[in-house]
Specification:
Length: 408
């Protein structure tokens, strides 16, 4: 069987005061993901595991894949399993990594991504006025309690007590065991997830901090990345499956790494040929044409990054998989312990796209392929006319996602 692994490519995390190395390859030889052919009995699966001095420790039922724990680095076990006629594929359980009238939020003036003079932003004020209406003085009637669509996020968790995120959390789970087991809790011990959540849907017009792309949206968080911003693909797959069952408008993944068959199976199931849940993911921060996953799967919208001049961010990956772009350079958003931080990366671009998708859902009630089409149309075309490798269809424009929102 052809070897399914490629070098793990890590997505962005460049939070103020923090540094995470990019491009390192991290895989675990302790656990393998194995898909057996239809009709192979439980006893035969156990026999196959014993044949490689391993044991089955969990089954990812949503894609029919077994998690095997083996001795050593797993290389010999992989070779043997790939030659086993009972096996469709066998692969390492690799890691992926976390790759920011006006509201009265005091730091809104620093959020170039939402509004600025040269219009290299997402036209948020125009969109909010169209979506929520205005009073007789022209002031936008922002929602005071979030009741809108849910945005699913897979990341390092969330600081749910943050003043700009209080009341936002609609669901919370973790998958951190490396074997795809969903458990309770999603407290952020890194900061990346909280930053992403604020970009997507921070409380807006609450007199505190910053504004979020989709002010009325709620957050459903699944923590699959640890305090170092790293998580196993089995756990990320499990989070995808869990979120798809929570009724989210879109699943936002500011993370990435190598391509795996089990993750391809997972996104196939969730997308369901366009009848399932929209998924958006970071294109990558290598500054080259490398394809990063899960963004690289055809079922997932790959999101590139732009600057405050509507240029391509220097770190943003460029390839035929890029579908849309969004602000990702020097984005101010929520951070741990009630604070705020500025970060850059396609990790920051991705939740903008998820927030736009949530606003489209709120306005038009669409999902699946119809939502994906609407997201691809709610853009300002940048670079070469039409879809291109740098910006996809263009940089997202929230006002174009909302009826009557206009937008430049």
């Amino acid at each position: 069987m052809k070897r399914a692994l490629v070098a793990v490519l890590f997505v962005c995390m460049a939070l103020t005061g923090m540094s995470v190395p990019l491009g390192a390859s991290e895989i675990s030889g302790a656990t393998l993901l194995v898909k057996f052919r239809s009709g192979v009995s439980e006893a035969a699966r156990d026999d196959a595991a014993r044949d490689v001095d391993g044991r089955r420790v969990r089954r990812l039922g949503f894609i029919g894949v077994d998690v095997l724990r083996v001795e050593g680095d797993g290389g010999e076990a992989l070779s043997q399993l790939r030659d086993d006629p009972r096996v469709v594929y066998a692969e390492r359980n690799i890691r992926q990594r976390a790759l920011a009238s006006f509201p009265n939020d005091p730091s809104f003036g620093q959020q170039w991504n939402m509004n600025q003079g040269n219009d290299a932003d997402i036209d948020a004020p125009e969109a909010w006025a169209a979506a929520y209406g205005t009073d007789t003085n022209g002031n936008t009637l922002f929602p005071t309690t979030p009741t809108g669509p849910k945005i699913g996020i897979i990341d390092t968790g969330i600081d749910a007590d943050h003043p700009d995120l209080v009341g936002k959390l609609a669901g919370c789970a973790s998958a951190l065991t490396g074997v795809g087991l969903i458990t309770s809790g999603c407290e952020d011990d890194n900061g990346h997830g909280t930053h992403v959540a604020g970009i997507a849907s921070a409380l807006t017009n609450n007199g505190k901090g910053v504004a979020g792309t989709a002010p009325d949206a709620r957050i459903t968080m699944c923590k699959a990345l640890n305090s170092a911003g790293v998580g196993f693909v089995a756990d990320i797959n499990a989070c995808m499956n869990w979120l798809a069952g929570q009724g989210v408008s879109a699943i936002s993944m500011s993370l990435g790494g190598g391509k795996t068959s089990s993750q391809q199976d997972t996104v196939n199931k969730i997308w369901n040929n366009g009848a399932g849940t929209l998924m958006v993911a970071a294109a990558g921060n290598d500054g080259n044409s490398a394809v990063n996953y899960p963004a690289g799967y055809a079922e997932v919208v790959s999101v590139a990054s732009t600057t405050n001049t509507d240029a391509q961010s220097s770190f943003s990956n460029e390839n035929a998989d890029v579908e849309v772009a969004a602000p990702g350079s020097s984005i101010l958003s929520t951070y741990l312990a009630g604070t705020y931080a500025t970060a850059s990366g396609t990790s920051m671009a991705t939740p903008h796209a998820a927030g736009v998708a949530a606003m489209i859902t709120a306005e038009n009630g669409v999902a699946g392929q119809a939502l994906r089409d609407a997201l691809g149309a709610a853009v300002d075309d940048l670079g070469p006319a039409g879809r291109d490798i740098y910006f996809g269809y263009g940089r997202v424009n929230l006002a174009k996602a909302v009826r009557g929102g206009g937008g430049g």
